[in-house]
Amino acid sequence: MSATVAMILALAVGTYAFRLVGPVLHGRVAIPPRVQELLSAGAIVLLVALLATGALTEGGGFAGWARPAGVLVGGVLAWRRAPFPVVVLGAAGVTAVLRAAGVA
Amino acid sequence: MMAPLVRDSALVWLASGVVGVSFGAISVTGGLPVWVPVVMSLVVYAGSAQFSAVGVLLAGGGPVAAAATGLLLNTRTLAFSLAVADILGRGRLARLLGAHLVTDETVAFALAQSDPARRRAAFWISGFGLFAVWNLGVLAGALAGDALGDTGTYGLDAAFPAVLVALVLPALRENPAVRRAALLGAALALAVTPAVPAGVPVLVALAGLAGHGRDGGRTA
Fold first, then answer.
1. What is the pLDDT of residues B18-62, one digit of tens each?
2. For the segment B148-183, what is each residue's pLDDT rounded down to a tens digit?
3. In chain A, what are the helix, strand and coil shares in percent, each to the nearest 5?
4. Of B62, B131, B150, B175, which has the fewest beta carbons less than 10 angstroms from its beta carbon?
């Protein structure tokens, strides 16, 4: 069990260290506007990559049709400026209905 | 200002809570003691890394591989922490506390707001709410075991990518340079996904930033 404790601690400390880099550097290191802009763009790039891989893949392979179909419906709703809850429930609803109908 | 932020955030809390329940249930039914998912959720607080680490453990991969997989997945929080550093401000407590609350959803929710005051409010509302609901969900799931069944039935796995779509769309819409970088990055991430360990694809996506900003692109 102590190996599990060590694993949790290593993961927790390492993750917190990653998360602390930005707040600790802020105000100590002058970040030029050009770099700050690149960081904001980088966050968007990461989020889009996360949503793309999250929508389409599972364990390194294709996630099946039900999930990307739901995400696509959510995306269209968001594009048409539907309220946030409609986007989320629409995406989950379509995927749930497709699965209930036998689509993986 | 608060009410719409709470309303939009609450749905993400709800979905995260259910995913938390499934994390607790999967861990316990896989043979781990109740305290493992519960403590892990409090001190690691990163959904995808927790699922991966427990998955490696339950598959017999050993604690070193479990920690390494989780850490690899969480390297992206370093980039996120840089992106939200000015939202957290200069106070020591705000920095130490805020750092722990940096997650995909909270960063996306904060960056999607239009002005600094709203960004700050959005970060803390989403951050605290998500932390509370996630951990309560994990505890409930760990205690309930496998009573919930397969959360895939509810389509929750589609809800999270859709949340991110809704949150990044404004930035993609108004900034062609960011849009190009993001689409290129996503294509790269998808292309390498079958070949590399989990966590690496989104880092590869950062290559989409190469050449970004030379045409005077600006970020919302």
1. 889 888 988 898 889 999 999 999 999 998 899 889 988 887 888
2. 667 678 888 888 899 889 989 988 998 999 999 999
3. 75, 5, 20
4. B150
Within 30-69 of A, beta carbons closer than 8 Å to B belong to 34, 36-57, 60-61, 63, 66-69
The count of structural domains within chain A is 1
Q: Is A84–B108 a contact, with Cβ atoms under 8 angstroms apart?
A: no
Q: Which of A22, A48, A89 sits opposite B168 (nearest CB)?
A: A48
Question: What is the domain extent for residue A10?
Answer: 1-30
Q: Which residue of A has its CA nearest to B151?
A: A96
Residue A41 lies in a domain: no
Contact A14 B67 (CB under 8 A): yes
Residue A55, domain member (yes or no): no
Interface test with A, best of B193, B206, B212 (most A CBs within 10 A): B193
- For residue A20, tell me if it sits in a domain: yes
